[in-house]
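Subject: Sanity check before I submit

Could someone independently write out the structure tokens for this chain? I want to compare against mine line by line before I put it in a report. The sequence has 54 residues.
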Amino acid sequence: MTHVVALPPGEWIHAATGRAVWGAHEVHVPLDDVPVYVRAGAEPDLLAVLAGGE
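---
Independent answer below. Compare away.
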């Protein structure tokens, strides 16, 4: 079973896997997946935060 995540236009990165998705998009993800997507341009900042940086 899956559920749908609707993303607005742009380049998105799945926070847990690093998988990229482009454009206005509907993504089907497993029910046990937490669908956290970040803007591709924000990924380096997010990684720094997760690594304990600023």
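---
OP: Matches mine. For the report I'm noting this point. DSSP finds one helix and five strands in the chain.
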